[in-house]
Amino acid sequence: MTSLPDLSTPLPGTGLTPAGAPGTTAWRTMLALAVVLVLLMTTGWTAIRHTGQESGPRAAALADWRKGAVAGRPLPDPESGAGTVARFFHSLGTHQQRRLADRYPLVVGNLGGAPVRLRYRANHTALEQARDSERKRMTDRRLTDDGRETAAQRVHRFESLLRPGRQILAFDPTGEGRAAEVFGNLDAARRISVVVPGVDTNVLSFEKSRRPYAAPVGMAQSLQRQQRARAPQLPTATVAWADYTTPAGLGIDSASGRMAQAGAQRLERFVGALPGSARVALFCHSYGSVVCGIAARRLPARVTDIAVTGSPGMRADHVRDLDTSARVWAARDADDWIADVPHMEFGGLGHGADPVSRSFGSRRFSAARADGHTGYYAPGTDSVANFAAIGTGSYADVNCASADPDCTSGAPGRP
Question: Last residue of some domain: 153, 188, 209?
Answer without folding.
Answer: 153
